[in-house]
Amino acid sequence: MRVDAREEFAREIALRALDRAPRSRAQLAARLASKDVAPEVAEAVLDRLEEVGLVNDQALADMLVRTRHSERGLVGLALVRELTRKGIDDDAAAAAMAQVTPEDEAAAAEQVARKRLAVTRGLPRATRLRRVAGVLARKGYPPGMAYSTVRRLLEEESESA
């Protein structure tokens, strides 16, 4: 294959992947490598896609943090794991993580906890505390925040009953 044909082949693979969903440079590089695209060809194609703005790891990281936080209630380590899994570098991840303030985390923890507490009504208090705190922990909340939020909500619930 001549160079132009190899680049066109690689470009088509990358554009098809980008057509389905935004991808990081690392994800596209892995996809091109899986299709046996030569590293120098992949590099040239990825450089060009970055140049025209079709690949932007910082914008992808910002979008992922925003959506995962607002839609799924993820914070902290859970978001970092998601960004790492997508191949986002540490600097872009740190900049994106700065979007979520401690106040945002606390509000999201309360929202997630309220939703899960509603599902566990009728169970013993200790079971509810453990289950809901576990849900918060899997979403990346620090253990102290998780337990204090759930305890406070359980207290409010028992006071209003």
Describe the structure.
The chain is mainly α and 161 residues long. It has 3 domains: 3-55; 58-97, Arc Repressor Mutant, subunit A, CATH 1.10.10; 102-160, Arc Repressor Mutant, subunit A. The protein is 78% helix and 0% strand. It contains 9 helices and no strands. Helix 8 (125-138) runs antiparallel to helix 9 (143-160). The N and C termini lie far apart (74 Å).
Describe the structure concisely.
By secondary structure, the chain is an all-alpha fold. It has 9 helices and no strands.
User: SSE order, as H and E?
Assistant: HHHHHHHHH
What overall geometry do the principal axes of the alpha carbons give? Answer: elongated
Radius of gyration: 21 Å
Report the span from N to C terminus.
74 Å
How many separate helices? 9
Tell me the strand percentage band.
Answer: under 5%
Please mark out the parts with pLDDT under 50 across 5 or more consecutive residues, or reply none: none
The assigned structural class equals mainly alpha
Q: Fraction of residues in helices? A: over 70%
Q: Major β-sheet, in short?
A: none
CATH architecture of the largest domain: Orthogonal Bundle
CATH topology of the largest domain: Arc Repressor Mutant, subunit A
| CATH top level label of the largest domain | Mainly Alpha
Q: How many extended strands?
A: 0
Mean pLDDT: 92
Number of domains: 3
